[in-house]
Specification:
four-stranded antiparallel sheet
Length: about 200
């Protein structure tokens, strides 16, 4: 956003395996090809895929960790604030309640101001899961509650949430397997978030 660019490297190696990393670039800086920050998962002890999904709004960055070893729900998203006292430490961690491992929470992420939307659209083709979107208000602090954004037209393995983008209280969300599923037609929905 603006002159800032974030790029995820989910296969980047850490001390205990491919934990992943996210690199922050300032395109107006003296060396735009060099990252000004490199963020890592704060607690990963094994495969984390940190950086599978990234988004930025102003000086806030949200990072999807699609497959974190040892996490209660398997997947989690992390928010960083570049202007905080310690920009390498997250200011919020986002999790959807009561999710089993494999629901792909944080497969896609989006942020606009104080609002974050997380997509979890791929638990496995043929499982009958319609996908999901979860909205968070960062004004709630370090562990904001999740509010499910309903799928407007659930149909089998539609996988809503494979990709998300947001602005001005609206979310554009992709669904991979819109019926008829054998045609892989796909669709996109424009939805209002909780705050919108």
């Amino acid at each position: 956003e603006g002159s800032m660019l974030v790029a995820g490297s989910p296969a980047a190696s850490g001390a205990s395996g491919p934990n992943g990393a996210v690199h922050v670039f300032d395109l107006d800086g003296a060396a735009p090809e060099q990252p000004i920050r490199s963020l890592t998962h704060p607690q990963a002890t094994g495969a984390a895929n940190f950086g599978m999904a990234v988004a930025i709004s102003g000086r806030r960055i949200v990072v999807g960790s699609w497959w974190v070893t040892g996490e209660p729900a398997g997947e989690r998203a992390t928010v960083f604030e570049l202007d905080s006292a310690n920009p390498m430490e997250p200011v919020a961690r986002l999790a959807a309640p009561d999710l089993e491992f494999g629901y792909s929470f944080a497969y896609a992420v989006a942020i606009s101001g104080d609002e974050v939307v997380i997509g979890g659209g791929y638990p496995g083709i043929g499982t009958g899961f319609p996908g999901g979107l979860w909205a968070f208000d960062l004004n709630e602090g370090a562990n904001p509650s999740a509010e499910l954004v309903p799928n407007p037209a659930p149909a089998g393995s539609e996988n809503l949430g494979m990709a998300v983008a947001m602005a001005d209280g609206k979310v554009l969300a992709a669904a991979l397997l819109t019926e008829p599923a054998d045609l892989l037609a796909g669709s996109a929905y424009l939805l209002a978030t909780t705050g919108g």
